[in-house]
Amino acid sequence: MVYQRSAVEALPAYVQGKSIPDAIKLSSNENPYPPLESVAEVVRECATSFHLYPDMSAAGLVARLAERWNVRPEEVAVGSGSVEVASQLIHASAGEGDEVMFAWRSFEAYPILVQVAGATPVPVPLTADDRHDLDAMVAAITDRTRLIFICTPNNPTGSVVTRAEMQNFLDRVPKEVLVVIDEAYSHFDDDPESVDGLEFFRSHPNVAVLHTFSKAYGLAGLRVGYAIAPERVATNLRRVAVPFGVSTLAQAAAIASLDAESELQERVDVILGERTRVVAKLRDSGWQLHDSLGNFVWLRTGSATAEVDAILREHGVVARAFLGDGIRVTIGSPEMNDRFLAAIGNTAPAA
Ligand code: PMP
After folding, report:
1. Cα separation of 138 and 176, whole Å?
2. Which residue among 226, 269, 296, 322 is buried most deeply as judged by most CB within 10 Å?
3. CATH architecture, domain 37-259
4. Same fold? 16-35+262-344, 37-259
5. Test site for ligand 1: of 30, 78, 82, most ligand atoms within 8 A of the Cβ
6. What average pLDDT does this structure show over 148-174?
7. Ramachandran area for residue 29 (φ above 0: left; ψ -120 to 50: alpha; else beta)
8. NCBIfam families this protein is in (predicted)?
9. Per-residue pLDDT reduced to its tens digit, 243-276
10. Where are the domains of the chain?
11. φ, ψ dihedrals at 138, nearest 5°
């Protein structure tokens, strides 16, 4: 038998929510709207250059992002989705015996990526009200801690870290430890108290910010995300990146999306209105929900998770169930949300 790393063979695979025929898919926090015409147009124009490799440095996109966020291009690193950039951050910071910390439950990919890198995942349980337990995270720091992910709004709970909490946290984290603020859902966060990652990047030498084009910009299928990181870190992200990881198509569509930000924001605003409506209806029918500031809601279904998930599926709704814990349901178009609300009406609310 060929040799394979046992640590890899022991890993759970990252699973994608499975579609079922005629069902609506609310399992991946996708944007329900198709690409803007201006973005589709640019993508069509790109087709004439598909025989050529992309610009490996993604210079146009990096320059545009640097301008957008008022940072230096040397501080921007792009990748094939922000999950790829998260992987690069881990590979650049942590090896065998090093620790990477994150709250749990959070983005399912973190523990997998850490183990693939041969480092040790350190999950720190969320508080009883599903928020980051930043005191417990500080207490869990050791001399092997290399990187800490703070996902805000947190996937799947939708909870956020406030500015004041982040300041207090960073005051207690050693400067050798890189703190990555994963803001995949920040466009949906309309709480003025919430962290603005860029503000902390500018004031702290050990903070990086992770952004994606998959959610608010609606380009999940094109795979493009980026980090804004201290120059030394960003340089190392380029060193560990797979060459040509971001396609010509993805680069062009990302630039066109940045050009159309206000139009995209209008769509985000519709999703926020829908989130308010869905949460109110769920609460009216007895569900106890914390506020969610992502494009999804988190139903704490505990031991009834499999049962509630089966009922949703029977009624043609695919959500993301985490057995024994809860169900994350993406906010879709008004029609999709109506279908979800009708389906959930067949279940008993979990208090
Ligand atoms: N971070 C978080 C918190 C996420 O939920 C996701 C996607 N589900 C990602 C990063 C990765 O997104 P992408 O690779 O599509 O940019």
Report:
1. 14
2. 296
3. 3-Layer(aba) Sandwich (3.40)
4. no
5. 82
6. 98
7. left
8. hisC, PRK03321.1
9. 999 999 999 999 999 999 999 999 999 999 999 9
10. 16-35+262-344, 37-259
11. -60, -45
pTM summary value? 0.97
Q: Indicate whether residue 200 lines ligand 1 (CB < 6 A).
A: no
- Counting ligand 1 atoms within 8 A of each CB, the residue from 212, 257, 331 with the most, and so the one to mutate, is 212
Q: Which two tokens stand for residue 57?
A: 């440095």
Cα→Cα distances 206→86, 105, 310, Å = 15, 24, 44
In this prediction the ipTM stands at 0.99
Find out whether the beta carbon of 330 lies less than 6 Å from any atom of ligand 1. Answer: no
**82-117 residue pLDDT tens:** 999 999 999 999 999 999 999 999 999 999 999 999
Q: Which CATH superfamily is domain 16-35+262-344 in?
A: Aspartate Aminotransferase, domain 1 (3.90.1150.10)
Token duo for residue 73:
């291009």
Query: Is the pLDDT confidence value at 351 over 60?
Result: no
Compute CA 181 distance to the chain's CA centroid, rounded to the nearest angstrom. 10
Q: Among 34-43, 230-239, 252-261, where is mean pLDDT lowest?
A: 34-43
Q: Give the integer Cα–Cα distance in Å for 329 and 125.
A: 21
Contact 197, 160 (CB under 8 A): no
C-alpha pair distances (Å), 210 with each of 76, 227, 278, 341, 344: 10, 5, 28, 32, 33
Residue with tokens 């389906």: 343
21 pLDDT more than 90: no
Residue nearest to atom 1 of ligand 1 (CA): 184
When pLDDT is cut at 50, 70 and 90, the band that residue 20 belongs to is confident
Spatial neighbors of 331 by CB under 8 A, at least 6 apart, are: 26, 271, 274, 275, 278, 295, 296, 297, 337
